[in-house]
Amino acid sequence: MNLSVLDISDNFFQGYITPEIGTYMARLIYVNMSGNGFSGSIPSSLGNMSLLEYLDLSNNRLSGNITEDLTIGCVSLIELILSNNSLQGQIFSETSNLRFLYELQLDGNQFTGSIPHSLSDSSFLRVLDLSHNNLYGTIPRWLGNMYFLRVLDLSMNNISGSLPSNLFSSNIREIYLSRNELQGSLEDAFYGCYELNVLDSDHNHMTGSIPSCHNLRVMDISYNHLFGKIPNWIRNMSSLQILDLSQNNISGSLPSNFCPRDLTEVHLSKNMLQGLLKDSFYNCPLLVVLDLSHNNLIGRTPKWIGEIPLGYILLSHNHFEGEIPIQLCKLDKLSLIDLSYNNLSGHIPHCLRCSSNYWYRQQEALLDPPTTALAPSVAYSPDVQPEQPVEFTTKNSSYFYQPSILHYFSGIDLSCNNLTGEIPPELGKLDMIKVLNLSHNKLIGAIPPTFSNLRQIESLDLSYNNLEGKIPPQLTQLYSLAVFNVAHNNLSGKTPERVAQFATFDQSSYEGNPFLCGLPLPNN
């Protein structure tokens, strides 16, 4: 048969791939069977396809090894994509004839063993993705000698040892090493990294100070053991967009005005930073995410925080004091505000805004519909959508929210401060908010009846304050509510009718209010 192209991708085919496919269709150049339900092993007859340049069997249920017939017989292969199957064993045997291989994607399988030396013969390799497997051993030095290699992804394996000294001085543009067992000094391996744009090495055991690599667009070295101060030269990294150094041992104060012009995300949580914020992020025209939580920062929250286009402000577990700056009300695309566990005082600003990025985009579409055939992401104003996960507490637990979830999520956490005054009824206008936590403050007055407008809310915590009066009966209309807590206040009267979600709340939601009665409290 003279068929040269076979594309049956993204269907509902199941069963085995015909064992004789390579015999009957030996002249195939392009084969794409991805996105089906094929099971069984990869047919050894594929090795008969000496003209085959493209093979994609990804997103199936294939098992077994990569047949040696394929790696020896498919001498013309340029792209081999076997991602997201259940393949196992060694990646390749010691013998391989895939000398023209340009792209190799084996991620999302169960391969074991070390990175095979036979891959070094594929000298034209440009993309190598071995992530999400069970590989072990060290990163071989010959990877740094692969002249054409641009993308290397070894994340989510069990690779150990230190980084080869020539890896970052190569032509590689993107390196992904997250969630392995790597160790040693990261700074020592960074000499001459002129081409590197993306470094993702989170959740390892790397030590040393923050490495210098001026062309980076993404630097994620979170969850390691880096130490020292944040260097002033970071402000000269003109391409840097995402900086994530969270969960390290970084100390000292934040440099003044160190913000590169294109920076959109700063994640520095869970370090040992101290001192004042001063003007560290004053000149950040594109900053969307600012996460400085779990540090030892002091002083007042700076007023310039309302001058940058923040969508996610996370300053919890520090020692900030003074009032919540009214300038926060100038931020018209806020999705997350977490100022919990500080020493903030004064009243809650009545003008706070908070909604999901999805809602803001919908409003833009209504007010200014696209006039061209461009996709919405092109026709509308830039997103305030993060690319890194963000940690936020909801329903009494802390979660890492992935960017795809954050698009639909919004919340305010002002708990564990010294806030006083009444709860602004204007907060009831935040009808798209998912989480509102005002607990452990010194708030007085009644629960605003306007809270019945929070139709999307899932977690509402007003406990440990000095609130009084009755619980608004209209709150039973909050059908999405999963956590409700008004315990330890001075509320009186009857508890809300036990209907819908309120039938699920137990005594702990109401306890500590001596003048409150009704189920589920014992004083009916």
UniProtKB/TrEMBL annotation:
UniProt subcellular location: Cell membrane; Membrane
- Membrane topology value: Single-pass membrane protein
Q: Which GO terms describe its cellular component?
A: plasma membrane
Concerning PROSITE patterns, the annotation shows: LRR (PS51450)
Keyword entries, A-Z: Cell membrane, Glycoprotein, Leucine-rich repeat, Membrane, Repeat, Transmembrane, Transmembrane helix
One Pfam family linked to the record? LRR_1
Cite the InterPro entries for this sequence: Leu-rich_rpt, Leu-rich_rpt_typical-subtyp, LRR_dom_sf, RLP_Defense_Trigger
UniProt lists the family membership as follows: Belongs to the RLP family.
What is the name of the protein in this document?
A: Leucine-rich repeat-containing N-terminal plant-type domain-containing protein
What lineage is this protein's organism placed in? Eukaryota, Viridiplantae, Streptophyta, Embryophyta, Tracheophyta
